[in-house]
Amino acid sequence: MNLEGLQPDTAQTFEMDVKAGWNLVGCPRLSIVTLDSLQVRQGANDPVTWDAAVAAHLVQDGIYAYDQTVGYQLAEAFQPWEAYWLRCLVSDGVTLIFPAVTE
Fold first, then answer.
1. Are 86 and 98 in contact (CB under 8 A)?
2. Please, what sign has the CA dihedral across residues 5, 9, 10, 16?
3. What pLDDT was estimated at residue 103?
4. CA-angle at 89, arms to 85 and 92, nearest 5°
5. What is residue 17's three-state secondary structure?
6. Cα angle at 35 between 90 and 58, to 5 degrees?
7. Using H for helix, E for strand and C for coil, what is the string for 18-36?
8. Distance between CA atoms of 82 and 19, rounded to whole angstroms?
9. Which residue in 54, 58, 65, 93 has its CB near the most CB atoms, within 10 A?
10. What does the pLDDT look like over 24-57, one tens digit per residue?
């Protein structure tokens, strides 16, 4: 299999808009991205940590992966080449902010 495409600039944060309700979200990085490294922004407000966004009822706690043998499972991080269900709890949606890759 030959895959082609452009990888987002890893030196910059990557922003992904999600709408109210359930969203299927893929990992924009070629490395693991933990939930505690994400930030969440609602509208023009300052970004907050994932835990603060959960506490403020912007997003549901946890992301969910699907495995054919066991069904849906709670995940603690975004893995490269995988997709996850994430639930946004506010009607105007939020923006997920994935951190820049520092190595």
1. no
2. negative
3. 66
4. 110
5. strand
6. 10
7. ECCEEEEEECCCCCCEEHH
8. 20
9. 58
10. 999 999 899 999 999 999 999 999 999 999 999 9
pLDDT of residue 38: 95
Nearest Cα residue to 84 out of 31, 39, 35, 14: 35
Whole-number Å distance between alpha carbons of 74 and 99: 22
In whole angstroms, what is the distance from residue 83 CA to residue 25 CA?
5
Cα distances (angstroms) measured from residue 45 to each of 11, 15, 42, 50: 23, 14, 6, 14
3-state secondary structure 65-102: EEECCCEEEEECEECCCCEEEEEECCCCCEEEEECCCC
In the block, residue with structure tokens 């992904």: 16
Rg of the chain, C-alpha, whole Å: 14
Contact 33, 99 (CB under 8 A): yes
Strand partners, 40: 48, 96
User: What token pair was written down for 21?
Assistant: 């309700």
